[in-house]
Amino acid sequence: QSVLTQPPSVSGAPGQRVTISCTGSSSNIGAGYDVHWYQQLPGTAPKLLIFGNSNRPSGVPDRFSGSKSGTSASLAITGLQAEDEADYYCQSYDSSLSGWVFGGGTKLTVL
Amino acid sequence: QVQLVESGGGVVQPGGSLRLSCAASGFTFSSYGVHWVRQAPGKGLEWVAFIRYDGSNKYYADSVKGRFTISRDNSKNTLYLQMDSLRGEDTAVYYCAKDLGGSYFDYWGQGTLVTVSS
Q: What is the model's pLDDT at position B30?
């Protein structure tokens, strides 16, 4: 059971928009800790996608965006492309656990 | 460019030990904290341990506390994870990841597989 809760899977057709939710609690996201997102393509290491709730590292397309409100955060992907098919993880810090925590991951399927 | 290269993985029996290494390049290693993160086969990511830039503070997940030890040698630009009393549930790909701001992981290595099995 992950500290941050994500849907196991989402799907969308090419060109569509999908969102992935990440729900935490008062000891992590709700405590004001930032949320970050990672993309893991099949058979590869995770890659930073969004940092500080809504910031994109250099090279990440602006089709990817993040937001945070209260005890939750969301990752939105617009203009879906086949290459976006991957696992996506949210991450934050938890003060009760005194450690960094991840969501369980969401598998994105591009139909 | 930033590179993190893990090594030392392999097959070990339950109760055994293994030491992982992570060689860093492309950035000033001694200025940044570094993490170990693992991923069991077919499962999600789990944070394992963190060490500050100068080795002064170390933090562990409850699942490995007392069994794993994180360390670093800034003169060799290398991070280590000593894993003792290994269990089947420690079977995973282990990644080292560079820390930014004590908040997130901006670069990851390619990972090294540890299999605990008799």
A: 97
